[in-house]
Amino acid sequence: RVYTASDTGRPSSILEKEFPSVNFEECKRQHDHWWYNHQGNESDYEEWRPYGDGQWYAVPGEPEVIFDARIKELDEWLSQRKETNI
Question: Which residue of 5, 21, 26, 61 has the fewest CB atoms within a 10 Å radius of its CB?
Answer without folding.
Answer: 21
